[in-house]
Design a protein that fits this description.
This protein is an alpha/beta fold. The chain contains five helices and five strands. It has a five-stranded parallel sheet, sandwiched between helices. This is NAD(P)H-dependent oxidoreductase.
């Protein structure tokens, strides 16, 4: 049996039971036979990006995130939209990667799950393409109004959303091989 691919799943929300976290947990559950998913929970522990701190020794939280991203075979991000953009904590995490090549060529899948989400989705796509991630043909997914499609317990009840999510992850899997 082939070894499971290591995936770092990054929820863009720092809320403990966010719909974005639920989506990443659903992916981990649906693909547990193929993927070893680690959900990153340290966005709120990262210091604000400061180029003066981007040297040895790195702040410990930054060093840990970089190591996790480096060791991952691929990255999945699922984020909400805050004020028509990415949450600052997610953007901050990405900014800590800019001086490295860790994300260059790294397979990624991008999900925006928010009431509207369009502007955050555009921003996420632009930022991640700028840092050089590798996206498949169906490498991003916008889930609008996710709270009507996913229960508070994290169960995806909308069949169209579930099918779209599977299509995204199946496309992502082709990048990992």
């Amino acid at each position: 049996m082939p070894e499971k691919k290591r995936i770092l799943a990054v929820p863009g929300s720092t809320r403990s039971r966010s719909v974005n976290l639920h989506i990443l947990q659903a992916i981990a559950s649906l693909y547990e036979g193929k993927l070893a998913v680690e959900i990153y929970d340290g966005l709120d522990q990262l210091p604000h990006f400061n180029p003066d701190l981007d040297k040895d020794p790195l702040p410990p939280a930054v060093a840990s995130l970089r190591k996790k991203m480096e060791l991952a075979d691929g990255i999945v991000i699922c984020t909400p939209e805050y004020v028509f953009s990415l949450p600052g904590s997610l953007k901050n995490a990405i900014e800590w990667m800019v001086s490295t090549t860790i994300l260059t060529g790294k397979p990624a899948a991008l999900i925006t799950a928010s009431s509207s989400g369009q502007k955050a989705h555009e921003s996420l796509d632009l930022v991640m393409r700028t840092v050089g991630v590798k996206l498949g043909e169906k490498g991003s997914l916008l889930i609008q109004g996710p709270k009507t499609k996913i229960t508070e317990e994290g169960v995806i009840t909308d069949e169209t959303t579930l099918a779209s999510l599977k299509e995204l992850v199946d496309d992502f899997l082709t990048l990992l091989n």
